[in-house]
DNA sequence: TGTCAAAACGACTATATCGTCAATATGAGA
DNA sequence: TCTCATATTGACGATATAGTCGTTTTGACA
């Protein structure tokens, strides 16, 4: 009777499910990044993803849940950009500088990604917090070493994040310019009052 | 026959019109500042303003037109904050510093205003452009005097605006802290590589 | 090739929001 | 008090979007 392997069936299901789900998440990311101010609709998402409406609700309970999934993907892209190089850098300022440059290069190369980050930065609910936590840890370490003139960690984080976000907006708006990345980093380090090691 | 003064009638109308219109604009400003991500609705505006739906459409063609009116009011508040003091300051760095401090103080004192500015900064369509133009003029003058190490005016503007916006977000999020305003200004001047006169 | 559980579909109802318009209210001056 | 141009009202039909659900398709495996 039990001739079918139910576990295998479920696995197949999971794989197919993952493909379609990825389509929807990608469409959602594009729409979320490109919106001006009005909210995105389920109809717009399913049209962009090329799936039926029922399929959307099979995968997500609401647009909010989709947005959360997009945010999770964004978090992952940040981690992938950073994690490998973080461990091998003992100096907090090196880590901070590396991340700053890396993110800015990514934004220059992938405008859609940049738009999405900018949009997501509006709601600091979950995604931006991880990045900020890393940044704050680096700054705190540098402060402890007496190398930062801005004493308030939160303020220092705001300064670095603010410069990064607005420079990224500039790249989106006016395109990447040679030298911008390095100059932006230098400006940020000066702003924090960082003395070289 | 012509016993009524038509011009006077029209004036009365204009006054009453202005009052109701102001109510709607104020409600719109609150909603636009407080929104998370979904678009605001006409129904929400009329409820907040305490007027009927028809009244909204009597004054505005759409939500977009209301948003434009709110943006115009915001522009005006910036000008009022600045203009009187701008003319009597010959030094561009003084002007820039004054504006930076003034805006930050205003944001600390009036959180609703700050929220609205943050939200409006997303769409650099018209409102933010005036502020940016002033800022760029000041920076350009300082660059011409050889006092700024960041040579790209657009980048310099992005840096100053970025710091201001994110510090303002911090104030909204975590409340104003003593010393933040001055430290943020110092950091901005360092970021731009400004040497004192 | 047939089976079947998971996945996808899309038509449908419910609800929200838009935008209109005929009717009513307002209020300064005659 | 009456007039009337202007402003305000809110019910209404039109449209857009949300969310449901019975039906159909898919595809690995027996």
From TrEMBL, chains A, B:
Name of the protein in question: Transcriptional regulator
UniProt keyword terms in alphabetical order: DNA-binding, Transcription, Transcription regulation
Domain HTH tetR-type: 18-78
The organism's place on the tree of life at top rank: Bacteria
Pfam families reported for this sequence: TetR_N
Keyword Transcription: yes
InterPro entries in alphabetical order: Homeodomain-like_sf (IPR009057), HTH-type_TetR-like_transc_reg (IPR050109), HTH_TetR (IPR001647)
Location of the DNA-binding region in this protein: 41-60
PROSITE patterns the UniProt entry points to: HTH_TETR_2
